[in-house]
Structures are given as structure tokens and as C-alpha cells.
Design a protein that fits this description.
heterodimer; A: 234 residues; Rossmann fold; four-stranded antiparallel beta sheet; globular; B: 332 residues; mainly alpha; ABC transporter involved in vitamin B12 uptake, BtuC; 14 helices; 69% helix
């Protein structure tokens, strides 16, 4: 059974549909990357999956159970996590407090997971008592991803994790994403840096105008001359 | 020396007392603003309501206090706090929450809170009438005179029971609030929600619980402030008219959304009020022979009837020159 499956999803804000029938599926150990031009509905799709906007038609499933229009708190309890693109940290809370907030629903001892997050993101370990708002952009992104990992999710949704980062940080974040995935977390992310992202992707989804234009493995999409020409800058 | 004692009685003790009361009100306003993003104009009436509950309980069990040796209303305070907290939760449920769910602009909820103000005032008048009441029914206000161990000081420092209690309570509350916000799971969740409400929801934080806890804290602190003020002066149904402006000024002076700022703001406003109505002629009297002008009998910055203008001026000054407040809060 697929970890995650979205069938014919229609949705948007206030009755206007931005998504016009999106299909996606992801296995438990896979990285899926959503690419496409601006306004194609990439981030909208992530929000629709995480119950942040209304799905008018279609069906979204996690391990075969419907999570269409479920409440975000409910989804967190079902081991899903979402990292928004902007404003994805609590700036006045310390790094460690940010991570603790990720574990808000947990009533067991989450210290092992805290240590694991620090081992994923070593730069954070030295700054655990510092307010997260004082960190650099790349480190903030690490805090945001670390926060999402605290519930030990089976699927993590990342909205443009490398937006606004320098190329150096970008490849560092991609490497972290690979190691998170290797630790057994399914990853579904939206990326502007389409080429680099598809390189690490098991599955790629090219969205245009709220619909799948191409759906294939990451490598096949990179090699497809039509995709390369239209979406990957030649 | 007597002049100095006069200064302590009229500025230091009064300033600490009224400052503590403003601080408690301002903390509530600032917490509500940081969690729910609106200026809660009914907050001063929540204070009156708390005092009214304490008065009601005192009237029911007037003999409790004298038996223990504390003001009855103070003994009843924990119960009054619980009642006020419950009232605050239900006011939110009945009037503010439906508006929030409709996604209205904050100004609409501010207007609703003005409506709640008028409603609460009407209700309180219905039950206790319009006259001022003493919170002491079977007991009397304890007044302590501390003689100064100096020969020149013939007058004592005067401090009342409610003044001692509110100052001690404030110290305890500050420590408790600090520990709650920085050490507990819910306290941290409150700060998180104040920082970024959308991310709080996405993180799985139960925002409804955080909202409830906010009302419980704001409501109980309001009950403490209202009861202690009424114990020190008297309980009037229009108490809130004299409190609303100072507590808002205190919250804004401290930096909205900043609990420690609100505490500091409360004392800034409290001391500004007492210093400006203080009769400086008394302090200057020993030097009257050296002054180039004739010392009048009273010399104050503001006549005490116009005390309410002081927070108003401070509020204007802060909004013009430092709109984020002393502690860099959010801009309203």
C-alpha cells in the first residue's frame, strides 16, 4: 500500500479552484518533488494535503485511510508534518523550545528524538539556548525541519526548503533531506530549484495550471528533453 | 524627616499599590492581545466583576476573615478568581469566539468587547446598585503605623493590609508567571502562539486550550487587581472607568504583547500618577527661605481630580515617540 496517495484533487480559496485534478502517490521510503512554473498550485497542493485549505473534490489518503480535509492537529497525530515556506519558526523561542513545540502532542519522553535532531543538524546543537530568530536563514530552515521531525513523522511536507538560501546552504539542506529520508521518513517537497531537487527525487510531479503535466521518476524527468526545455532551463 | 515620611506614604507606598494593580490589569491585556490579537476593552470590567464576586462572597460569609485575621474579601479571593476565570471563558465563548470563527477584522472584536463592557456594568449595577460599597463587612481595614527610629520623624509610615497584600502578591505572581511562561509546556505554547499562530496550529498545538488558559490567567489576575483595589478604596460599579485608560496605557508603554513590559508599564503609570498629584510644597518647605518665590500651600503638577490625564499624556507621548513601547512590543 502506498504511504500517501492523492487522487483527482480539486481545491482552492473561497470557491475558486487552483487545483484542477492533481494525482500523486508516494511509497514509504521515497522522496517526491513537486516542480512547475509560478502559480501552478505547488504550494497550494501541500496546503490542501495538510488541511489548510478546502479540498472540493477528490481524495487524499495516508496509508489507505482518507485524510481529505482533516484538521492539521489530527494530521500531526497521524504522523504527518508540514514545514511552511515562510514564517516557519517561533522567532522569540529558543532553538530547543522550537523543537519542544514540535513535540507538543507527545506526552512521552522525547529526549532521544531531540538528540537525533541535533545529530541531523549539528549546527543547532551549539545554539540550543539561543532565540531562533537570531539564526541565519539556513539554520532557521534546520530549526523548522527539526521542529517537524520531533513527532517522528512518517511523511514530511516541505514547502520550498531552500528558498532564499545560498547555493552552499542549498546543497547542505538537500543532503539533510536525503539523510532524513534514509532514516525512514517519506518526503514530499515543493522546489524552485527543480533540477537539483529532481536529482534527489524518487518521484517527480510537474504541475501546470493545477494539473499534472508530467509524472515520472526524478531521473526520467531530468532526461526528458521536453521537461528539460520547458521547466528545467534547458 | 516628617517630609520624607510624607513622601514615602504618598508616593512610594501609593505608587507601589496602584502600580501593582495597573500591572496586573496590563498583563491580562497584553496576554490577550498576543494570543487573540485584539484590544480587550472589557478588561477593566473583568476587574470590577472579580471584585464584585469577592464582595458577594464576603457578604455571604462575613465571619471567615476575622476568624483567621485576614480581610474576608482576601480569603474569598481564590474563589472569586475561579469565578472570574470561568466568566472570562464564557464571555469569550459567547461573544468573541463566534466572531473569530467568522474571521472578522480585529476591530469588530474590539467593538464587541466595548459591548461586553456596557453589559457587565449593567449587570453589576443590577445586583449591587450604583453606590460605592465597602468590602469590609464584619471586619475592619488593618492599618499599620510604623514609627521611624529617628528623633526628627514624629510621624509614622502608614501602610494598610490590602497594600501589603497586593505588593507581596505581585512579587509572587511575577515569579509564577515567569516560571509558567518559560518552564511549562503550556506556557511555552502560549509564547509560541503569540509568535506565530499559524505555525502553532501546524505544529499540533491545541490552540483552543491555549486560548482558554489565556482567559484563565487574565481573568484571575483581573480578579486579584479588582478585589485588592476595592479593599484599599471601595467597590464602585464604575471602577472600570478609572482603570481602563491606565491599564491600556501601561500595556502600551511596556510594549504590547510583552508581559514583563506590562508589569514595568504598570509601575511607570502608577508612579507617574502619584508623583504628579504629590504635593511638592511639603518637600520644599524646609528650604522655603532659600527659594526665590513664595511657597504656596499646595504645589502639584496636576490637581488630583485630573489624575486621569497623566496616563493619557504618557500614552500619547509613547505613541508619538516610541510606538513599540519600552520593551519593543508589537505596534498596535
Amino acid at each position: 500500500m502506498a504511504l500517501f496517495e492523492a487522487t483527482n484533487v480539486h481545491g482552492g480559496y473561497g470557491g475558486m479552484n487552483i487545483l484542477n485534478g492533481v494525482n500523486m502517490s508516494l511509497e514509504a521510503d521515497e522522496i517526491g518533488v513537486i516542480v512547475g512554473p509560478n502559480g501552478a498550485g505547488k504550494s497550494t497542493m501541500l496546503k490542501a494535503i495538510f488541511g489548510l485549505l478546502h479540498v472540493n473534490e477528490g481524495n487524499i489518503q495516508l496509508r489507505g485511510e482518507s485524510i481529505t480535509n482533516a484538521d492539521p492537529v489530527e494530521l500531526v497525530k497521524r504522523k504527518m508534518a508540514f514545514v511552511p515556506q515562510e514564517k516557519n519558526i517561533f522567532p522569540s523561542l529558543t532553538v530547543e523550545e522550537n523543537l519542544e513545540m514540535g513535540a507538543f502532542i507527545r506526552h512521552d519522553d522525547f529526549q532521544p528524538m531531540l538528540d537525533k535532531v541535533y545529530s541531523f543538524f549539528p549546527p543547532l546543537a551549539d545554539k540550543r539556548k539561543q532565540p531562533a530568530g537570531e539564526l541565519s536563514g539556513g539554520q532557521r530552515q534546520m530549526v523548522a525541519m527539526g521542529r517537524a521531525l520531533m513527532t517522528e513523522p512518517s511523511l514530511i511536507l516541505l514547502d520550498e526548503p531552500t528558498a532564499g538560501l545560498s547555493p552552499l546552504y542549498m546543497s547542505e539542506i538537500f543532503e539533510r533531506i536525503i539523510s532524513i529520508n534514509k532514516a525512514g521518513v517519506g518526503v514530499l517537497m515543493v522546489e524552485q530549484h527543480a533540477k537539483q531537487a529532481l536529482k534527489i527525487a524518487h518521484k517527480g510531479f510537474v504541475l501546470v495550471a493545477g494539473q499534472n503535466r508530467f509524472t515520472d521518476t526524478g531521473q526520467n524527468l531530468i532526461n526528458d528533453p521536453e521537461v528539460a526545455k520547458a521547466f528545467l532551463g534547458g | 524627616m516628617n517630609e520624607f515620611v510624607f513622601f514615602i506614604n504618598n508616593v512610594v507606598i501609593s505608587g507601589l499599590t496602584i502600580g501593582s494593580i495597573y500591572a496586573l490589569g496590563a498583563v491580562g491585556i497584553t496576554l490577550i492581545f498576543s494570543i487573540l490579537r485584539f484590544a480587550h476593552f472589557a478588561h477593566a470590567d473583568l476587574m470590577t466583576l472579580g471584585a464584585f464576586f469577592a464582595f458577594f462572597l464576603t457578604a455571604m460569609f462575613p465571619a471567615v476573615g476575622p476568624a483567621i485575621g485576614l480581610p474576608t474579601a482576601f480569603v474569598m479571593l481564590p474563589l472569586a478568581m475561579v469565578m472570574t476565570a470561568i466568566a472570562a471563558i464564557y464571555i469569550d465563548k459567547g461573544f468573541y469566539k463566534p466572531l473569530r470563527r467568522h474571521g472578522v477584522k480585529p476591530i469588530v472584536i474590539v467593538m464587541a468587547s466595548l459591548g461586553v463592557t456596557l453589559m457587565l456594568q449593567g449587570l453589576i449595577r443590577m445586583f449591587m446598585g450604583t453606590s460605592a460599597r465597602s468590602m469590609y463587612i464584619d471586619d475592619r481595614k488593618g492599618i499599620h503605623r510604623l514609627d521611624m527610629p529617628f528623633e526628627l520623624a514624629s510621624r509614622p509610615i502608614v501602610i494598610t493590609d490590602p497594600q501589603i497584600i497586593i505588593i507581596v502578591l505581585l512579587v509572587i505572581i511575577v515569579i509564577a508567571l515567569h516560571l509558567f511562561l518559560n518552564r511549562t509546556r503550556l506556557g511555552k505554547a502560549m509564547r509560541a502562539m503569540s509568535d506565530n499562530p499559524d505555525l502553532a496550529r501546524v505544529s499540533g498545538i491545541n490552540t483552543d486550550t491555549v486560548v482558554k488558559v489565556t482567559w484563565v490567567i487574565a481573568g484571575s489576575l483581573a480578579a486579584i487587581a479588582g478585589t485588592m483595589l476595592s479593599l484599599d478604596v471601595s467597590l464602585k460599579p464604575d471602577l472600570s472607568f478609572h482603570l481602563l485608560l491606565p491599564i491600556f496605557a501601561a500595556a502600551i508603554v511596556g510594549g504590547v504583547g510583552h508581559p514583563y513590559g506590562a508589569l514595568a508599564g504598570g509601575f511607570v503609570i502608577g508612579f507617574a500618577e502619584t508623583l504628579s498629584v504629590f504635593n511638592w510644597a511639603v518637600l520644599l518647605r524646609p528650604w522655603r527661605d532659600y527659594l526665590w518665590f513664595d511657597l504656596p500651600a499646595t504645589l502639584a503638577f496636576v490637581p488630583s481630580e485630573y489624575k486621569i490625564t497623566v496616563p493619557f499624556f504618557i500614552l500619547l507621548a509613547i505613541l508619538v515617540w516610541r510606538p513599540t513601547g519600552l520593551f519593543k512590543g508589537k505596534v498596535l
